[in-house]
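Troubleshooting entry. Yesterday's outputs looked truncated, so today I'm pasting the complete records for two proteins to confirm everything comes through intact. If either block looks cut off, that's the bug. Protein one:
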Amino acid sequence: MNQILMLGECMIELSQANEAGQFNQSFAGDVFNTGIYIKRCLRQSARVSFLSVAGEDQISEQLLSFMKEEDIDNRFVYRSNILNMGLYLINVDLDGERSFTYWRKNSAARQLMKFIRKDKNTRALSSQQIVFFSGISIAILPAEDMPDFWQFIKTLKSAGCQIVFDPNYRPALWTSPQKAREAFEMAYSLSDIVLPGVDDHKQLYNQHSAEEVASHLEAIGVNEIIIKNSDQGVLISIAGERLHIDITPVAEVVDTTSAGDAFNGGYLSARQNGKSVKDAVIYAAKVAACVIQHKGAIVPKSCFSEEITPLA
């Protein structure tokens, strides 16, 4: 069984249910979303675990219950008696455009390294075959914790873990673009697989094409590079060998909130299932297409199972 570790933050999501001002509550986070889609695609052939920090309040208990429903292993979710989960509100304007308001400055997930440092039994973490984290996973960590975080990733890598990284750049989470670049360069140098979008590099590196992004990452030495470029398709670079794959656009897009997360989940699932890189991209595009035709970062299981054939 594949052992896959997702490292990041899960937040409370509030979305408007009706014009009376009532809201629906759910849970979401980029790495968390990806983990759920991996589990749905691989089912019992993978053990997907989530490494994070939640609170000791009722909503944190709801998160653990939700993870159980999705068959996500919660044994690596630490519990803070000081801080609770972060929260975000989805706002929809008169034209249907979505925007987000966040309350995450005091998110419990920011304490992750504090708990890892105190944990005397991290052997189970080192037994993972894959560890996946994103730019958001590291952006929320205090600056003083970053040396310990990088050492933690190096320890996992030396234990045989395959390191996977998606930059998922969010400017508001960083003190400066330079700090983000420094962190991303370190993450790239440690990663076996990277899943950037051209938009990430456009903002940070002034690179406007998938080819420029590929050249940048090839020079760092990343072996497996999957570059998402919206309606222009996907550029693959494996050990410097490139291949462009066209993606058929979805006719009616409902919600793009978790498009990249779903793509990542589909891609990593297919690769773990033994698919070629090309076939994995095609499968990932189908998973993303399913998700963006439904509201919410995590679509109902029934909708997903009707449209996506599991790999195992």
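Protein two, checking that the full record survives here as well:
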Amino acid sequence: MPTLDARSILTPTGGFLQAGYTHTLNPYSGCSFARGVCGVFCYAQHNGWVTRGRPWGLYGAKREARALYARDHDRLRRARGGPRPLRIYMSSSTDPYLPQEAALGVTRGVLEEMLERPPDVLVVQTRAPLVTRDLDLLVDLSRRTAVWLSVTVETDLERVPGLPPHATPIAGRLEALAAFRRAGVRTQAAVSPLLPIGDLAAFAARLDAVCDRVVVDHYLVGDGSQGLRTRRTPFVDMLLAAGHARWTRLEALEEVRAGLAAVLGAERVLVSCEGFNAVGPGHQERRVTRGGQVT
């Protein structure tokens, strides 16, 4: 796989993530999960500065990512006028735990550097159980700064009829959330974008056991264009052809939000942009005890 030169690895946020984060961090360019169902609807494929006219896929790993993070961190902390805040969303246009990460360790190298140069907030967003390889690092980092593990769990179905296979098993993602929660790292399930759900009550109970909170989203809200970007992909037609028409409407979002809230409590079920941006003071301290109480 090619390695790519970059002048920086921290990108100032804008749009969807601007309210909660100062920067995004993408260790890779593109995504090798493009052939899975997530690759069909992936919002990042509409970012021309990433794709540059190429078919959606993995384009390369960032060369010297760890050193780039160290340099960017020090520049922000030593900025004129005083240290700048550093709230990082990793990642916004790739997955930090692509299969290639198992051999390359690009993401792990960045996390190792963060132990020496911690940000103020770090949210690790992935759909890959490979994240458990770095459980030790993220537990250590969580003692020095606010860390959230956010795992995408769009559905309870291991295979959604009429759609391509998942990039990674749903069961493995839930197991990763459980492992991090047991270790004391804050955990979030991202039901985003919402896919058809087979048993909402059972799904809610499973999420209740493995995460502190849930963010639920729908492509009509979360793709940043009221669904126009998603309609440029085959995703909506696939849903309709497979008999999943009700999941193409916003009523499904409210139904799932209410079903999750009935089990987890309304304060633990967040929605779309507001939910993803619920980090920083007043948010990262909120934990759920074994008795289900939010503290």
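Both blocks look complete. Sanity check on protein two: The first strand starts at residue 3 and ends at 4.
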